[in-house]
Amino acid sequence: MAEVSLRKKLALIGAMGSGKSSLARRYVQKYGGSSLDTDAEFVRRHGAIADFFDLRGEAEFRKIESDILVEAANSDIDVIATGGGAVLSKVGMSALRKTREIVYLTAPFDVLEMRIKKSARPLKNDLARVMEAREPLYLKYADYTVDSSEDSLRSLEQALKTPRTNRYDTVLCDADDTVLDFAATMKNSIIAAARREKLSAPSDRVYAAYKSLLPSVWERLERNEITREQLETERFALLSEALGEKIDVSRMNETYTDEMRRRRDVRDGAIEFLKALRARGIKVYIVSNGIARIKSEQLKAIEDHIDGAFVSETVGFNKPDVRFFERVESEIGGLDKDRTIVFGDSETSDISGGIVFGVDTCLFDTTGSKRSAADYRVTSYAEFLDLV
Ligand code: S3P
Q: Does pLDDT of 3 surpass 70?
């Protein structure tokens, strides 16, 4: 295996007194590059932290701390030493994870206590309480855990020689336009079906009309405003209206379904992507709002590269309904929500669903233009692999 370079962009997390600031300085002294201490940055902008806590309160401090974390994460700085409460900021930690590896510095409790005793830290007398609340977060975000009671630079160097551990062990992965090439499947199927049903409109018009009406029909299904059976015929009733042409909607639906079932369009790089995830021991389950008799066929294209598939029609609920995800959870068994991420291209079904279910989410946004409430947004499979 290739030697892992020691020059990586890093963020150091850990309790007050764990030595984040001094390790950051020593690291860049030895390897070059730049370091930033987010507490020092806070002080530069707003004055002493203890005074700020007294005057404006901790909540206000956390907001500013979170902004500084995001800024620092997205900067060129090589090593960021964070404040002990950085892990309380979900957006801050997501930003750090996207751009660097995260090192958790530890030390025995009495060592931490001794180191901070004489400092002006506002929470220094609450160490036991804050440690109890934050330890799970430090562990959740740690790509590496380094003991700072001995020589922390040496321990860090040792740690960085090995690849970091996975951040997630389960990916709930959308199918259409995430790993399957729905755009191609839909285009080919609607054109073929229109031909078989002898519609008089030219195929590019049929395709354009169908493409523009389809998303809102699916969104109505996501909002439980229509049933799947209604969706199947409704889309062709709308097509008939858009084209100003009579269509036998149930026949058209059968023909279209038949065309869809034959197709095995997979996005470029998707198989390699699924293989790469599973080679790292990450489990991949497909979570799809698709139509069961279509998806059961199409998913054959990737069945050797996934651990299972859940199609909403069979599950009984559609994404983003939390009951869909709860059923998936009980089927899989032993799912660790802290180590599960939803990956998909739809804000309304994948991202909203993941959020209500209470797991991390990543929007697959190949155009890089969507607004999103997701924890992460990536434009390529490679970026997602870096993240997990
Ligand atoms: C805090 C830790 C401090 C500083 C502030 C609050 C905390 O940073 O951000 O006093 O909540 O644990 P250090 O970890 O650098 O001491």
A: no
